[in-house]
Amino acid sequence: MSGDAELDEQAIAIMRRAYAKQMLAVADAEDDKHMGDAFATVPRERFLGSPPWTIAARGGYRVLSSSEPAIVYQDINFALAPEHGVNNGSPSLHANWLHRAALNEGDHVAHIGAGTGYYTALIAHLVGRQGHVVAVEFDPRLAQLAIENLAHLPNVTVVQGDGAEWPREDVDCIYVNFSVRRPADAWVDNLKTGGRLILPLGVPRPDPSRSGGIHALYGAGLCVERQETGFSARWLGAAFFVCAEGHLAEDHGDGDALKAAFEKGGVEFVRSLQWKRPTSPDRCWFVGADWSLGYDEHSQLHL
Length: 303
Prior knowledge:
Elements: H1 3-26, H2 33-41, E1 54-57, E2 60-63, E3 78-81, E4 86-88, H3 91-101, E5 108-112, H4 118-127, E6 132-137, H5 140-149, E7 156-160, E8 171-176, H6 185-189, E9 191-204, E10 216-227, E11 230-238, H7 255-264, E12 272-275, E13 284-287, E14 291-294
Parallel strand pairs: 5-6, 5-8, 6-7, 8-9
Antiparallel strand pairs: 1-2, 3-4, 9-10, 10-11, 11-12, 12-14, 13-14
């Protein structure tokens, strides 16, 4: 290897470290050293395909003229499948959400909507060699790329399939990277006590976005935690992800009620998830056919 190449690699390593510090600062997670190591270690360019790269910009997409790896170390959405509106999303948003997921070494995680695997690789770093990540991707082309990109990680299994059907065993965390009108049964039912479900809840736009794909018209990130006697829930901020495909793309009867809930406001005050049990509608932000999101802690919502 030439001296120039070594200098280039050293410079990119320094840029990754600076990028990691910036993303953690924006995410209010500066004390999360383990996650900082993950962002500083995993090469984002490996998961974006060959240049020229395409970025989401001004409601559409723009092709970059530069092919320097250093350019990927900023808070920009890079296109993975622009015709479907699928991107390698905002690093600062994921830094915040992964921080809230509070992953530990040895955890078992289901990453639903893995794309080409960049955030899967970060999760794999966080759970370590004793942990395991099942990465599920609906799009066959993206799933194949994820298989290739993650082949060097023995603690990752990539599955091409419908995210509504995974995980198939109890896990410590489920990390969802597309917008849904309701959680899948498998996500709630297979969450261990103390486990966290991170998901973007949203109402689809009536028409495809100009940039491609159907994105959320209204959307919010939620962190749901299974406790001994119920589920707590916390708002993670606005989130306008591309919407689900497959089974989760169907409106199971809750779409209008969810849209009305977003339009009245107050999702930031949600404190609990009631799952397939009766609840008090007057203390809920949203009430669906068999689940609801309430303003009180879960113990206070039981009838």
